[in-house]
C-alpha cells in the first residue's frame, strides 16, 4: 500500500494542487455550474419531456397512496406507544392530506400558546380530528378518536416531503403542462410550505412563455429587434390565441390567478406582483367585470409602492380612475349593479386619496365633492345596508383634505362617529 502511494505521489499532489487552485472559483460559481449542468442534462433527455415528468409524478403518487393504507413501522410503533391514545398505539394512521393541512394551520395559529394548553379534549378528537380513512381501522360499532395533530403530522411529513420532491423534479420537465404545479399544491399546504405553491405556478408561467418564445423563434414568427417587453407581448398574444396545441391559454391564466388568489402574494415583491397583474389584465381585457377588479387591485399595489416613491401614487391614481369607469361593465346582463356602484365609489375615493398623498389637495377635494351625490350607494340608503368601512374612510379623507386646505371649520363639522 505504501509503495503504491509513493509511486503515485506526484499524481496525488497534482490533483490536490489543482483542487486547491480551482476550489475558490468553483465555490464562487457553483450556481452557474449547476445551472449549466442542469441545462445540459435537460437537453440530453429532451425538454420539455412529459414522459419523464409523468414518471416522476407517478413515483410521488405511489408514495402517498402507500401511506393511505396506514402501517406499523417499527420506529413509529415505539414512538406512538409512548405518545398516542389507546386506539392508535402501535399503528400509523392512514395519510389524509386535508387533516395534515388542518394540523399545520392549527399549530400555526397557536404558535405562541404553551404546549399543555394545546392538548385536545376527547370530544375534539372525536368530532374535529377524524377522517373517513380512519373508520376502516376501527372495530365495527366503536367510535374512532382522531390523533394528536402534531404526532399525526410528524408521522407522515417525511413521506409527504419525498412526494413533494418528486413533484418539484417533475416541474423541470413538464414545460407548459399544469399537472406538476397542481400536484405540488396538493401536498404543499399539508407540509406547511405554501411558498412551494407559488414556486410551482410561477415556474409554470415562465416555462410556458419560454416554450412559446422558442417555438416562435424556430418558426421565424418573431420579428427581430424587439425589446423584452415587446417579445412578451407577442408571446402573450400567441398564448391567448392558442397557436400551439401543447399550450393551453386556460392553464396559463389559471397559473396567473393562482399566484394571486391562492397564495395572497405574500411571498412576492410588489414589483413582481405588477408583472403578474400586467399579464392578467392582458388576458381579462375582454371581461369588463374582471378588468375593473384587477385594475383596482393594481391601483392598490401602486399605492403601496407609493410609500417608497411618490411617483407611484400618480400611477395609482390613474389605475383607480380606470377602475371607476363602470360604464365598461354596466351593460352586462347579470351584473350586480349595487355592488358595481360600491366599487365605483371606492375606486374614486382611492383616486382622491392618491392625490392627497401627492399633496394635490385641490384635485383630491374636487374628486371628493363629486362623490357627494353618490353617498347613497354606500350609506344607510344603499342596497345591503351601510358600508361602514368605506364611509369611515371617506369621512376621514375628507376631513384630512379640508384641514390641509385650511378649511378647519368645515373639517370639524364632519362627525367622527360616522
UniProtKB/TrEMBL annotation:
TM regions (residue ranges): 9-27
Transmembrane helix found in the keyword field: yes
Keyword Membrane carried by entry: yes
Keywords of the record: Membrane, Transmembrane, Transmembrane helix
Highest taxon of source: Bacteria
The name this protein goes by in its record: Tetratricopeptide repeat protein
Organism: Leptospira soteropolitanensis
